[in-house]
Amino acid sequence: MSRTIFLALTAFLLFNKIQTARKPFIIDSFKFGCKTLSPRLKNLMGYSIKVATGYFNVGGTVEIGKPLAENSLVHVIFTLPRPKNTKIMKLLDVKLSVCQTLKSMTVVPMLREIFVEMMAHSNLPCSCPVVGNISMTGLIFSAKYLPTYIPDMQCNLTITLIENQQSHATCEAEAIIIRRKN
Predict the structure, then answer these.
(1) C-alpha atoms less than 13 angstroms from C-alpha of 63 in its C-beta half-sphere
(2) Which sign, positive or negative, has the C-alpha torsion 158, 161, 165, 167?
(3) What are the coiled-coil residue ranges (predicted)?
C-alpha cells in the first residue's frame, strides 16, 4: 500500500516538474487588436505591449449598451499559414455559447488556462447578462500557455462575437514562436 502511494506521489511530482520546466521556445512577436463590425458595441479597443523578451501585456475594453442575447456565441479560430501561402491550416475552429461558458467555465482544454487568467484580469461577469463596460488589463501572455511540442511557427487567433447570427466584433492575435537560443 505504501509503495503504491510512494509511486503515485513520485509520478505526480515528476509530472509537475515537467509541466513547470522552462519552455524550449519563446513568443518573439505578438500583435493583438480588435474592431467593431456593428454599432451594437462601442469603444472597442484591444492592445498588446511587449514588457520583456517573450512576455506581452494584453488588454482591452468594450462598452456593451444593452445585455447580450442568451444565444450569443464566441467563434474561436486558431490557424497556421502554410508554406507559400497556399492555404491556411485550422488547428481549432469552435463556437462557444457566451452564457454557457461563463456559467460552467467549460472551455476547450487548449483555451482553459488562458480563459481562467482572462477572467482573473477582467471584470467580465461569471454569468449572463453581459452588459456595461468590460475591461481586461494586466494579462501577461507568454509561452506558458502553449504546449511544449510546438515548433517554430507563425500562428493566428481570431475571436468573433456573434449575436442572432450577426457578427458584432472581432479580435485578432498574431504570434511568431521561435526556439530559445542557448
Answers:
(1) 4
(2) negative
(3) none
Would you say 91 and 156 are in contact if contact means Cβ atoms under 8 Å apart? no
Percent of the chain with pLDDT over 90: 29
Q: Which three cell numbers stand for residue 121?
A: 484580469
What the chain holds in terms of domains, given with CATH numbers, is 23-179 (2.70.220)
Average pLDDT, the chain: 82
Alpha carbon dihedral 118, 119, 122, 123, in 10-degree steps, equals: 160
Asked if the peptide bond before residue 39 counts as cis, ω within 30 degrees of 0, the response is no
Predicted confidence band at 19 (pLDDT cuts at 50, 70, 90)?
very low
Q: What pTM, to 2 d.p., does this model score?
A: 0.77
Q: What is the DSSP letter of 69?
A: P
The pLDDT value given to residue 20: 45
Q: Counting Cβ atoms within 10 Å, is residue 141 exposed (0-12), middle (13-18) or buried (19+)? A: buried
